[in-house]
Amino acid sequence: MAQPDDSGVGARDSEAQLTELAERLTEARQYLKIDALLARKAELDAEAARPDLWDDVDAARVITTELGRVNSDVDAFAKLEGSVDDATVLVELIDDARGSGEADSSLETELQATVAEIATALSALELRSLFAGNYDEYDAICEVHAGAGGTDAQDWAEMLLRMYQRWAERRGFSVELDEATEGGEAGLLSATFIIKGRFAYGLMATERGVHRLVRMSPFDSQHRRQTSFASIDVTPFLEDVSEIEIDEKDLRIDTYRASGAGGQHINKTDSAVRLTHLPTGVVVSCQNERSQHQNKARAMQILANKLAELQRAEREAELAALTGKRTENAWGNQIRSYVMAPYQLVKDLRTSEETGNVESVLDGDLDAFMEAELRRVRHEQ
Description:
Number of strands: 11
Radius of gyration: 25 Å
Number of helices: 10
Number of domains: 2
CATH class of the largest domain: Alpha Beta
Structural class: alpha+beta
Strand order of the largest sheet: 2-3-1-5-4-9-10-11
Shape: flat
Largest sheet: 8 strands, mixed
Low-confidence stretches: 1-7, 261-268
CATH architecture of the largest domain: 2-Layer Sandwich
CATH topology of the largest domain: Alpha-Beta Plaits
């Protein structure tokens, strides 16, 4: 019995997908306000070309930073438009070949690959439309704290730190580890780190909350199943927080010997610094700089950002949006569960996003969970 002829089916599917992608790109032009960005780019180009631009360094930095972000959005959109145009030409070549009875499979393969690349790039561009917060584009100050679960929880806190470091590497972001306090037997009691990259805060804010791990404990002599908890807190990092005045009379300053995974420059003198802001109870630490003076300066910068966040929350009545609801770092309050025994599953309890590939998630594959939460938040606004 003769088999049906499937020639060109894959190409026709790609053509239909290309039509859908072109329509999505047209919609993206509107909600990403590309025309307004092009107009703003012209203004910023003129500002950046002024010969006296760097006479005012702070103003120049603001202009060049905004120009870089505008160029990034405009260039990404223009590249996608070019890719859609190239794919459209491929479709025309394939149609011509069909009409002459000389179908070219290499053209069809190229079309399928091009359409797949467009779909991936467009999804990344569409994700930008989900960022609506005033600080989403900024770097993120992140803190991980071990919760209930003893040594397992401290080990879990260290696993989470590694997970976010690997996620940042995947996205091309940089990570600065400012403080890490070792646990009693293993892992970490806490760690403070800064993730630097565009939309770092907007993305990491989706991770704020309690994370639950279920596994066969490597610290239990009978290797029983253990549930442990660790929490993530996230604050937008602003370089300029000059409006925040901190009176040193309001601070308790403790110094201690740096230890743990703080970096190659940690020495064995009492160079680490912990600041406690007495009026608010906010505590920050830094141990990764070369000297006590540098650690104090860095800790003051982080403290200023955290106090600025509190002030913004009070002023704008957006405490829940900026800092998230404070919950006990224990059972019943988790935003996501990571189950490694008796089965394999990572499930976000806010969005129901899940995967059975736990190792991949722990290795930094978090984008699907972050995007799902961004879409949930946008839908509820």
